[in-house]
């Protein structure tokens, strides 16, 4: 594998650097003229940037065809917030600005963060100006208490409190017995993602503690669940789902939408959930005919009508219309009418 590497100094005073690992395109690589990329944020409690969560993490993503970058952000005496977040913003802006020269896809860049680096990656996914297109969060500090433990006396934020409809898709992994970052961090974060309809995948392993990196024996040794290394290939597969799968013919279309429903779009649409649309007073006249059909089907098939509705309210209107036999033309026509109605979110 021919690899072009370079080291860029982003802030000499704070010792901030960006390691760039770029794969070739074209020629032996078929129709690949641009590549997706990953930006890796090592952990280390904002005291150091752990080498065990840096370049060694990049290699499997390089093998999968991704350009890889490692950001060594502000730590130790320079860790005062928002220095690390500003370092991330600088790095992501630089990567996207060089998309043509580096043959990368600026709209297909994932961030990978571990522990404190996972906190930074989650902040990137929720509050950054230059958001990534996907985030992989490893045993990440996501709630305020643990974040403050890494950054005592600073104005650090809890990314779990900033999840909204603009948060990018997330992949989470951690161990149930983590005694550094309580597992509730990951559980609460994914619950909030679900609340806002954000695409996510989560792997909570039975045991493995904290800081297991890729889980490879050469990196962590023994004493962890033997399934932990699976997160690496699982995350690569997931990136293919949400960004598009990379082959010699180029990159395909995503099979998983960034949002599992349309509840957070600026206008109403058929990808909103049934329960959400039932609460939109301004859309009731448009929705009355299809709601009537859905109600008739429910009452004809179920004796516990309210129980059936409680199950179906999280389903999208599109999926329900398909179930009751509405044509693609009917669905498109209703979607067009709904998209004329602003989404008045509470």
Question: What this model shows, in words?
Answer:
α2 crosses α4 (116-126). The longest helix is centred in the C-terminal third of the chain and has 18 residues, at 284-301. The protein is globular. It is built from 13 helices and 10 strands. The protein has 2 domains: 4-251, 3-Layer(aba) Sandwich (Rossmann fold), CATH 3.40.50; 274-338, no CATH class. The protein starts with a strand and ends in an 8-residue tail after the last helix. It has 346 residues and is α/β, with parallel strands linked by helices.
Order of helices and strands: EEEHEHHEHEHEHEHHEEHHHHH
Query: Which word captures the global form?
Result: globular
Number of strands: 10
The structural domain count equals 2
Level-1 CATH class name of the largest domain = Alpha Beta
CATH topology label of the largest domain: Rossmann fold
CATH superfamily of the largest domain: Alpha/Beta hydrolase fold, catalytic domain
Measured distance between first and last alpha carbons: 52 Å
CATH architecture of the largest domain: 3-Layer(aba) Sandwich
Largest sheet, strands/sense/barrel: 8 strands, mixed
Number of helices: 13
Question: Quick recap of the structure?
Answer:
This protein is an alpha/beta fold and about 350 residues long.
Ordered list of secondary-structure elements with their pairings:
Blueprint lengths: L3 E8 L4 E7 L12 E7 L13 H9 L3 E6 L10 H15 L1 H4 L1 E11 L1 H11 L7 E5 L5 H7 L19 E6 L8 H12 L4 E6 L11 H4 L9 H14 L2 E2 L2 E2 L22 H5 L5 H18 L3 H8 L4 H7 L4 H11 L8
Parallel strand pairs: 3-4, 3-5, 5-6, 6-7, 7-8
Antiparallel strand pairs: 1-2, 2-4, 9-10
Helix pairs in contact: 2-4
